[in-house]
Amino acid sequence: MNICLILVLVFLLLAWGLEAVASLLTLRTLNSPAAALPAEFKGVADEEAYARSQAYTRANVRFDMITETAGAVVLVAAILAGAFNWLDVAAMRVTEHPILQGLVFFGLLGLVNSLVSMPAAIYRTFVLEERFGFNRTTPALFIRDRIKGAVLAVCIGAPLLAGVLWFFDALGSWAWLTAWVFTVAVMLVVQYVAPVLILPLFNKFTPLPEGSLRSAIEEYVRSAGFAVSGLFVMDGSKRSGKGNAFFTGFGKKKRIALFDTLVDSMTEEEIVGVVAHEVGHCKLRHVHRMMVAGILRTGVTFLLLSFVLGYGPMFDAFGMDRMSTHAGIVFFGFLYTPVSLLMGLWANVRSRAYEFEADAFAAQTTKKAEALASALKRLSVSNLSNLTPHPFAVFLHYSHPPVVERIRRLKELAAG
């Protein structure tokens, strides 16, 4: 047996196993006394509403287990059947140019992935989310979103991929460094233009109307010494009944975007608390730190990639007739699974710590910790969040601490 093939299969089994364990522990917790309605939510959610949130979590976890298992089986079967070589042969029949072959190869791979994952996406949107009253996406909107996503992938992803392929084909030992710098530059440009060129393709952003809410937010950001280029309401309700808020852009292009569902369901103080939390991420430089960490992870990835692109046994493991940069990038992704997992776990640990820090910043600067706590409760109840996740699931997946822990911290800050 090829050692690379063994490693790939072991890594895929490991990734699937971790997900399965987390899912089973979540389901077991939902059925245990530990999943009783937390005291912090007494009076906010009744037993019927809480039971509905548990049913929503249970349905999502079970569906994820099915899709992840099916996806792993299909992927292993594709590897053993030499499906990647079929795609490579198809790309060679389209063009003789190596860079164009790579683009065709990734295009075919993306098309196959989209077709395989489409039934699950349709079921989740129009059956599961619909069953619990969240879905507001029409079939036409669903199709338009995917077409727009595909066009963006071609317009942004194709030039980026072509550049990376050329660097590794032409620049030898320094290719990883050049590809890293080029990729980071593209990422920063995309992040800079996203608020005005990309996000409006999917949602409508309307300036927050003049009134007490806008005045309260503007007063808060001034008092916090934070500058934004605009306050907007996003029509998130056209896809889902869930609420949220976020910042877009960076530097002088920072914008605050509030889901219309959030504006319609929260009090003024609660919304200011949510905004203060997001401001905290920026003021405490969480955004910059995570960006730097992401840049460093990208560099490590390209460096490791440069060591294995010419490793013949890796291509033999996937039944390839030839070695190529584009196929090597895909195969490296499988071998990179353990490193990616460890980096993701560490990123989640830091992110959860940042969330606590941003909560503390909001409580300190607004002097109303209870307002943010109330907003978190309202969001959790309306979004049917899992209020009692298993610690292993939190460790593996959560970029935010469990909401009950955040509320308890805020309560301590309010009392102290």
Please provide the ordered H/E string of secondary-structure elements: HHHHHHEHEEEHHHHHHHHH
Helix content range: over 70%
> Order of strands across the biggest sheet?
1-2-4-3
Task: Give a count of the beta strands, DSSP E runs of length 2 or more.
Answer: 4
Shape: globular
Rounded to an integer in angstroms, the radius of gyration calculated over CA atoms is 23 Å
Low-confidence stretches: none
- The overall pLDDT, averaged over residues, is 91
Give a short summary of the structure.
The chain is mainly α and 416 residues long.
Describe this protein with a few key phrases.
4% strand; 16 helices; 416 residues; mainly alpha; four-stranded mixed beta sheet; 4 strands
Report on the architecture of this protein.
By secondary structure, the chain is mainly alpha-helical. It is built from 16 helices and four strands. Strands 1-2-4-3 form a four-stranded mixed sheet. Helix 9 crosses helix 13. The longest helix is centred in the N-terminal third of the chain and has 35 residues, at 47-81. The model has no long low-confidence stretch (mean pLDDT 91).
List the helices and strands and how they pair.
Elements: H1 3-30, H2 47-81, H3 83-94, H4 98-131, H5 139-170, H6 175-198, E1 205-207, H7 212-223, E2 230-234, E3 245-248, E4 255-259, H8 260-265, H9 268-283, H10 286-308, H11 312-317, H12 325-335, H13 337-366, H14 369-382, H15 391-397, H16 403-415
Parallel strand pairs: 2-4
Antiparallel strand pairs: 1-2, 3-4
Helix pairs in contact: 1-2, 2-4, 3-4, 4-5, 5-6, 6-10, 7-9, 9-13, 9-14, 10-13, 13-14, 13-16, 14-16
